[in-house]
Amino acid sequence: MLLPILRWPDPRLSQPCAPAALDDDLRQLAADMLETMYAAPGRGLAAPQVGRLLRLFVMDVAWKAGAPAPMVFINPSVELLGDRVAGPEGCLSIPGPVTEVERSSQVRVRWTDLDGAAREELFDGFAAICIQHEYDHLDGLLTLDRLSPEARAKAEAEVLA
What we know:
Elements: H1 24-39, E1 44-46, E2 56-59, E3 71-91, E4 94-112, E5 118-124, H2 125-138, H3 149-160
Antiparallel strand pairs: 1-2, 2-3, 3-4, 4-5
């Protein structure tokens, strides 16, 4: 089922999320989030973006260039590694502006998957950037919060135009 995506400045996007409990409702939410993400079309979507303040996000960085490879991250933790790099980021909750955001080039992620298994993996490149972007949502942070005051004012004006 397609879910409505919250748009900035909805205050729910700025709230930290609670831990998620793995059950059939959460599995259905993850499936609905993947469907919504593909339809948007995006490469990642966090639960708060669909109005659920839970520590859950979905991601598929491969599907636009190849076969789908969906991933579901429940209660993730992210360790920042590697060099800091700046690159363009868009957000389904902030339609319009693509902003330059500085991120770590590599991350180690620990999470629970849909089968309840503990997972750990190292990600780099675009996947590392996407993970950091979605993880920020779980802490109530948006790309706007990572910009200089001048860049933020420009991005906000673009959204509100």
